[in-house]
């Protein structure tokens, strides 16, 4: 399975960014279009989480930095969906910018 990493910096605190990302991953309709069977599991203490579905898997980590927070999402796509990597990456980056503006 090919993996790719999406990184995003935010001026929000790590805790605030983590809460916004949890809402985004649990409720966003566009993300659900990629995989309707997607399930999220979050760990508040470490500000991390996993997203598992029938089409892809992803690991999430939010870290505190001096200017706010850094979000890292590592997406694991099956070989069959490799042609859609660009679309998945673009959608996630766009949504992170929207929710963490």
Describe this structure in words.
- With about 100 residues, the protein is α+β, with helices and mostly antiparallel strands.
- It has one domain (about 5-95): START domain (Alpha-D-Glucose-1,6-Bisphosphate, Chain A, domain 4).
- It has helices at about 15-25, 30-35, 85-100; strands at about 5-10, 40-45, 50, 55-65, 70-75.
- A 5-stranded antiparallel β-sheet has the order 1-5-4-3-2, with helices on one face.
- The mean pLDDT is about 90.
Strand composition percent: 35-45%
> Averaged pLDDT, please?
91
The CATH class assignment is Alpha Beta
Q: What would you call the structural class?
A: alpha+beta
Radius of gyration (Å): 13 Å
What is the CATH homologous superfamily assignment? Answer: START domain
Helix content: 25-40%
Describe the biggest sheet? Answer: 5 strands, antiparallel
**Any idea of the CATH topology?**
Alpha-D-Glucose-1,6-Bisphosphate, Chain A, domain 4
Number of strands: 5
- CATH-derived architecture: 2-Layer Sandwich
Strand order of the largest sheet: 1-5-4-3-2
Order of helix and strand elements from N to C terminus: EHHEEEEH
Domain count, please report it.
1
Distance between the termini: 31 Å
Overall shape: it is: globular
Q: What count of helical segments does DSSP give?
A: 3
Could you provide a short overview of the structure?
This protein is of the alpha+beta class. The protein contains three helices and five strands.
